[in-house]
């Protein structure tokens, strides 16, 4: 049972199969398949949560440290000669001493703002990392779509020839029994039939692997069979053909997530360097205290503060390490940028070569191949050509059809590589 369904209906179908319903074949266009991929892919959903995690870290960085409250100097029994104090509750507390203090850590040198700045850059990095992850996963997904289209089209070509040969084998079997045709011709046709069956079996095994990978990417039930529509097998190349490759190379910093991520990494290390420099300034701890019955005053209230003295540790090592990290990230950014620009030019040339090859084949040649095959089959049935001449053309026909299909797949893959290198959709 076959049906073309929307992503929403597809989700219902997948739910049904999960309830032990008989497996179904779903036919998807490349566009619908990608919509489902963006909605359902578990890796993308999990990676997207890193953005929320990074934003939560910003919230945490804005929070002041908690104050510390302590009670001490409590005596649990009466000491000889204890001064009689006013009771706290009933008769309790007449001979008890205790102290209480409240401490609050105060960051100096703008450390809190610097920590917030670091986490904000970290949040931006999480977003760019997600975009880069999506960029690479999209190329993998789209190449898988092209491989499935190629596999299915190739299988259709071989199945069509198999059906034709099976009809010939049945006719020859009758003619052999009647003594009109030699056993050798029948065996040769039967061998060709087995070759087709063997090739179709190999295609089916390859398709099983593609099906498994696609169902993982789309998060579908394992019993669903996916078929990709062949109507959009040739990509829209209008925008790519009209662009200026130098402009694409110059704009790589604005579109490639990994390049933007490298720039953010430099900024992140710069913020860390500023934070490490601030750490050489010690923080201050403010204190308010109360002491009951433990001083010359019966009720003593006092204020104070504490601060580390930067005598031995002025954080020089960490500051130097952070400075080296900034320099290192600059070099990594430049290297990645140069590599990205070179990759754009390389993948563009590869795409243009694949496009030239595909355009050189032309639709007219493909139509002629099919017509010539029908003509050879008719001539063979009318005994105008020999079996070997017919088989020789069938072999040449299949070889050329496979080349055409491979060229279509190569065109899609090379376009996706170029789009991936540029960081732009270009359609």
Q: Work out the strand percent.
A: 5-15%
Q: At the third CATH level, what is the topology name of the domain at 234-280 and 315-427?
A: Outer membrane efflux proteins (OEP)
For the record, give the distance between the C-alpha atoms at the N and C termini, rounded to a whole number. Answer: 34 Å
Using DSSP, what is the number of strands?
7
Which sequence of strands runs across the widest sheet?
3-4-6-7
- On the 0-100 scale, what is the average pLDDT? 90
Report the uncertain regions.
1-22
* C-alpha geometry: elongated
Percent helix, as a range, is 55-70%
> What series of H and E elements makes up the topology?
EHEHHEEHHEHHHHEEHH
Radius of gyration: 38 Å
Biggest pleated-sheet summary:
4 strands, antiparallel
CATH architecture of the domain at 234-280 and 315-427: Up-down Bundle
Helix- and strand-based class? alpha/beta
Number of helices: 11
CATH superfamily of the domain at 234-280 and 315-427, by name, is Outer membrane efflux proteins (OEP)
Which CATH C-level class of the domain at 234-280 and 315-427 is it? Mainly Alpha
GO molecular function: efflux transmembrane transporter activity
Signal peptide: 1-18
Family: Belongs to the outer membrane factor (OMF) (TC 1.B.17) family.
Organism: Flavobacterium seoulense
